[in-house]
Design brief:
globular; binds 5'-O-[(R)-(carboxyoxy)(hydroxy)phosphoryl]adenosine; Nucleotidyltransferase, domain 5; 344 residues; binds zinc ion; single chain; alpha/beta
Length: 344
């Protein structure tokens, strides 16, 4: 089955073509970063308008890149949530319209299901079950993934998401938007241990996260001080090390607690080099395996949506002719194909 994937949940307009036999045939992302950077963050209305302008031409470009016509498409998968409601509706409406015009089934995919399955886009994919460390701008959780639609949340953040904490800390250091990559780059020039921040919740049992205390510690460290470049780099390094230590320790705890020996990283913060290096070392020392999707499969993309949609459509799942979009959509409402799904 050849599936067209569409992702418009936030500030990336993305289109992909995924085939069950041949794999990924096209994967296009247009980042709206330059548009939103002028405003210091994502402006939902501007995101929706940009999606409207970009999306359909990108579908044509993806088909042209794969050397295929629209008749070759067997189904369409779009991100139905969670995300910015206006942005989601753009993708949902186009997906539904194309599906109607082309006479192919259309399915709404949960954005996090896409991230959780993204490691399977790589040739060396993890087998089920695995523990996913899902770290993005909107979500931070550890999830036991035992199959399509079989997700058990082991722990999640009680306040800020990891990416959100990166972005807010970057803002405190005047790094602009998006903050995560900029903060990571600045941290490269800082010295380890020059500024020590708390490792949130490591002293407590369980697998939940909390990053608001870490953010407050950064506020206290920089407040009322004029920091030169070296001092800012030390703060960035201190923050990144505290974040990485916490994510690594909780991931190992999740492996121990579940008895699963495979970890997979998902979501935009999964691009972070120091996190990847620390996880690789720690998971290896624990006798387990860790899988890192390439950076473009960690950050928002349509390949992961096409893959998730492919698996559901190939299993026979079908939806009525509705445009579905949900700003909020708890992951634990998902079910495997064929089982009653509260949402559909
Ligand atoms: O998964 P994603 O692209 O979008 C969401 O679904 O949220 O994740 C975006 C998040 C942003 O908060 C961004 O700052 C963060 O991922 N991020 C990073 C890095 N690259 C992206 N955080 C830390 N280090 C990075 N290298
Ligand atoms: Zn995402």
């Amino acid at each position: 089955m050849l599936i067209l994937g569409i992702e418009t949940s936030c500030d990336e307009t993305a289109v992909a073509l995924y085939d069950g036999h041949q794999g990924l045939l096209a994967n296009r992302v247009f980042s709206q970063v330059a548009l939103h950077a002028q405003h210091g963050g994502v402006v939902p209305e501007l995101a929706s308008r940009e999606h409207i302008e970009r999306l359909l031409p990108m579908v044509h470009d993806a088909l042209a890149e794969a050397g295929l016509s629209a008749q070759a498409v067997d189904g369409i998968a779009y991100t139905a949530g969670p995300g910015l409601i206006g942005a989601l509706l753009v993708g949902a409406c186009l997906a539904r319209s194309l599906g109607y015009a082309w006479g192919v089934p259309v399915i709404g995919v949960h954005h996090l299901e896409g991230h959780l399955l993204a490691p399977a886009l790589e040739p060396d994919a993890p087998d089920f079950p695995f523990v996913a460390l899902q770290v993005s701008g909107g979500h931070t959780m550890l999830v036991e993934v035992s199959g399509l639609g079989r997700y058990r949340i082991l722990g999640e953040t009680l306040d800020d998401a990891a990416g959100e904490a990166f972005d807010k800390t970057a803002k405190l250091l005047d790094l602009g938007y998006p903050g995560g990559p900029a903060l990571a780059a600045l941290a490269e020039r800082g010295s380890a241990g020059a500024v020590e921040f708390p490792r949130p919740m490591l002293d407590r049992p369980g697998l939940d996260f909390s990053f608001s205390g870490l953010k407050t510690a950064v506020v206290v460290a920089v407040r009322g001080r004029v920091l030169d470049d070296a001092a800012r780099a030390d703060v960035a390094r201190g923050f990144e090390d505290a974040m990485v230590d916490t994510l690594v320790a909780k991931s190992l705890r999740a492996l121990r607690q579940t008895g699963i020996d495979t970890l997979a990283v998902a979501g935009g913060v999964g691009v972070n080099r120091r996190l990847r290096a620390a996880l690789a070392g720690a998971v290896d020392a624990a006798g387990a395996r860790v899988y890192f999707p390439r950076p473009e499969f960690c950050t928002d993309n349509a390949a992961m949506i096409a893959l998730a949609g492919h698996h559901r459509l190939a299993a026979g799942e079908r939806e009525e002719l509705a445009v579905r979009a949900r700003a909020r959509w708890p992951l634990d409402e998902l079910r495997p194909p064929g089982q009653t799904d509260a949402v559909r």
